[in-house]
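How a chain folds remains the central question behind the approach discussed here. No coordinates are needed to read the tokens, only the vocabulary itself. For completeness, the protein is quoted in full, as a sequence line and a line of structure tokens:
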Amino acid sequence: MTNARRTRVALFWLLVATLVAAQQCSLFWQSGTAGKTSEQLSAEIGQGLILGFLPTPLFYHVCVSLAAVVIWWIGTIVAWPGDAAITGARALSEASPGNRSMAPPGELAGEEDDS
């Protein structure tokens, strides 16, 4: 693995760790409603809403979820094994004894092509 690829993979996993930390953040989940009367709470109904209908904690969770989509999409580009890794894994599985399902007909020892 080249140094540039290692750096990209490390940066990807740093983004994943940041995403996990962001998902665990409870900053917006503090309601602050303790000790308030129903009249005080009714007066605050319109406050803390994004676009007039979405509560701030829910909007935060939507943003974290969208960030997860983007980060994992980046991960499939950056950290996904390349063709060499897949080819090497296929060669290992074909070389294992008893694995006759992956080899094309006629390539196994002792088999003859009937055509």
